[in-house]
Amino acid sequence: MAETQQVDPKAERKAARLAQQISSFSKAHGGAEGQIAYLGERGARIVLVGEDGNWGDLVAPSFDIAEKAVEKAGITRHESFDGEFAAKVRTGRYEWSRMAGIQVGGPKHD
Fold first, then answer.
1. Cα→Cα distances 24→52, 84, 95, 110, Å
2. Centroid of chain to Cα 68
3. CA distances (Å), origin 1, targets 4, 5, 6, 20
4. Beta carbons of 28 and 6 less than 8 angstroms apart
5. pLDDT tens, 47-58?
6. Which residues of 21-39 are buried (b: 16+ CB within 10 A; e: fewer)?
7. What is the pLDDT of residues 22-79, one digit of tens each?
8. Coil, helix or strand for 96?
9. Would you list the DSSP string of 45-95?
10. Is pLDDT at 1 greater than 70 in this prediction?
């Protein structure tokens, strides 16, 4: 007897929407690669890096949905965010000032 898997239609729709967003990002940036990071009960973060160095991220409600979305989008998936993959990220003034603000206690409020 063949074993059948239960398919959650809501999860499939969410994976398809995320895949569409990933594909749009990839198209806008000359291609893309990604990495999935587990966020615990919050789900999983999909970090995307375009061929042009721009980056972005999406949050999926679960690691499984994130994996399905990346697979449907057809981008290269890295196991970790380091080495050559991390070196592709191009950061600008905003990112550097934001990171510096976090390091010294966050943004100043007048």
1. 14, 23, 23, 39
2. 12
3. 9, 13, 16, 35
4. no
5. 999 999 999 999
6. bbbebbeebeebbbbbeee
7. 999 999 999 999 999 999 999 999 999 999 999 999 999 999 999 999 999 999 999 9
8. helix
9. EEEEEETTS-EEEEEESSHHHHHHHHHHHT-EEESSS-HHHHHT----HHH
10. no
How big is the CA angle at 28 (ends 80 and 31), to the nearest 5 degrees?
45
pTM for the full predicted model: 0.79
Structure tokens at 2: 């063949």
Q: Name the token pair of 33.
A: 């690669």
Extract the tokens encoding 107. Answer: 């943004």
